[in-house]
Amino acid sequence: MTNDLPGAGEQVLLAGLGNPGPRYAGNRHNVGFMVLDELASRVGGKFKAHKGGAEVLEGRLGGRKVVLAKPRSYMNLSGGPLVGTARFYKIDASGLVVIHDELDVDYGSLRLKLGGGDNGHNGLRSVTKSFGTKDYFRVRFGVGRPPGRMDAADFVLKDFSTTERRELPLTVDRCADAVEELLARGLTAAQNAFHGS
């Protein structure tokens, strides 16, 4: 797939990964949901339960028609609700943009890419399996590596530190900007604009 711009069709599916419920809301693993909430505020609407298994919101961003989707399942089962939602809206994997936490990117940094492995991320593994391809866009929100010998799975299920929380709204906002840039101008332009910062 060589297209720099998400989606051959009319609409793009913006999928934020996270775990449902207040217990997980502030976790590092839930930055995908946080970014989707920011994008929803820009669209100007509220998420509604959809029969595909996700909370969805339709609108326009970056000059494109979008469907924002937050799976109602746990992280490691994200693929099912997303593929159900994609089928309903007739969006294939080329129109899928997944926003997720990334351990191998420093906190506060963003990386955008097309395709690649799951790097041990259970949400991405589920999405890849459900869609039957690795070729979808990813917006990777850096959460950094766990300190000392802390297990990565424990680290991502903890809330951000006090210091990190001070920067979090700004980084979530920048990540939402990166998604809009990807939609409007394509992957290369978004990488050039956001990888350096």
From TrEMBL:
Coiled coil: none annotated. The keyword tRNA-binding applies. It comes from the Bacteria. The active site is at 29 (proton acceptor). The record marks 101 as: Stabilizes the basic form of H active site to accept a proton. GO terms for molecular function: peptidyl-tRNA hydrolase activity; tRNA binding. Keywords: Cytoplasm, Hydrolase, RNA-binding, tRNA-binding. Its EC number is 3.1.1.29. The record marks 19 as: Discriminates between blocked and unblocked aminoacyl-tRNA. It is an enzyme of class 3 (hydrolase). It catalyses: an N-acyl-L-alpha-aminoacyl-tRNA + H2O = an N-acyl-L-amino acid + a tRNA + H(+). The keyword Cytoplasm applies. TRNA binds at residues 24, 74, 76, 122. GO terms for biological process: protein quality control for misfolded or incompletely synthesized proteins; rescue of stalled ribosome. SUPFAM superfamilies: Peptidyl-tRNA hydrolase-like. GO terms for cellular component: cytoplasm. Hydrolyzes ribosome-free peptidyl-tRNAs (with 1 or more amino acids incorporated), which drop off the ribosome during protein synthesis, or as a result of ribosome stalling. Catalyzes the release of premature peptidyl moieties from peptidyl-tRNA molecules trapped in stalled 50S ribosomal subunits, and thus maintains levels of free tRNAs and 50S ribosomes. Monomer. This is Peptidyl-tRNA hydrolase. It comes from Prauserella isguenensis.
